[in-house]
Amino acid sequence: MTDTPRSRPLRVLAAMSGGVDSAVAAARAAEAGHDVTGVHLALSANPQSFRTGARGCCTIEDSRDARRAADVIGIPFYVWDLADRFREDVVEDFVAEYEAGRTPNPCLRCNEKIKFAALLDKALALGFDAVCTGHYAKVLVREDGTRELHRASDMAKDQSYVLGVLDDRQLAHALFPLGDTLTTKDEIRAEAERRGLAVAKKPDSHDICFIADGDTQGFLARRLGKAEGDIVDESGARLGTHEGAYGFTIGQRKGLRIGVPAADGKPRYVLDISPVDNTVTVGPAASLDVSALTAIKPRWCGAAPDGPGTYTAQLRAHGGETEVSAHLVDGELRVTFTEPVRGVAPGQAIVLYDGTRVVGSATIATTVRATAGAA
Fold this sequence. Notes:
23% of the residues lie in helices and 30% in strands. By secondary structure, it is an alpha/beta fold. The chain has three domains: 200 residues, HUPs (Rossmann fold), CATH 3.40.50.620; 58 residues, Adenine nucleotide alpha hydrolases-like domains (SH3 type barrels, Roll); 82 residues, Translation factors (Elongation Factor Tu (Ef-tu), domain 3). A hairpin with a 6-residue loop joins strand 14 and strand 15. The chain is globular.
């Protein structure tokens, strides 16, 4: 089994966000002998002129930073407007999921629908062989030519979770030059500086790129409006009110504004969000423990599993692994945890691993609490 890139030079379209990772990835692809063209995706219909510290991306400043990096690398550069597609497939999906009481991950949706669908389709139509990004993950090629997605060499930077939505066709045209890097982020920045890339000291983008101020609740309130509802305990007793169930996530502790303390004096957490009656249920931490779940819309990085199997699973972009057993039943993924896990929310992605290999991902639909029934 070998790492990509492949031995022959490729025509590569490098997605350049204006950050240091994508700039170094494009530079490495060019240095490897590939024919590289840089492209910055304009994903906002009304981009800000400047970022706010490390928040947000896709600003005019980011576009200029990407162009300057391409000039230093010595590759052609273009800006492609995918704002309408991004709004429809990522932003609107994000709002609709929260409105339905679920907790989505827009980065997975962006990789699935934008970078490795809309962008990749356009790249292939123009004669490119691959799309290159600054993600930390590896694509390995088996002797029979099939490709596998694996964790990055450095687990601390691994981003395979947000790439778990990629299928065989997309993997066949994906290039991740940073995936085999056993270096710290400081060393990546040092490499960028050696290459003369001005983005070497630019802060990383955090949070949700289209919510530059980091105020997700405020963003949703502007889109969905305020809708007062009840906060109740597990018995149904009313403890307080809220201005929109969409403003809460499973496992949330802060910002509940409950005036009545728990009988045992311990903190309460969000256990359930019901958009039907606009009710948020809270309770003790132990009630967050989940023993099993059902996930829908599975996407496989290769062949679908044949029968029940034992895997490790990751439930959050920066979360750890947990051991599970999983099998497909009528197109749904049924997962049982070896040990209960806490704070699993419908709408999140579960990504299955076999060692370092990404088996696939699915969207969590329902959970089974370790102390009760389905949540």
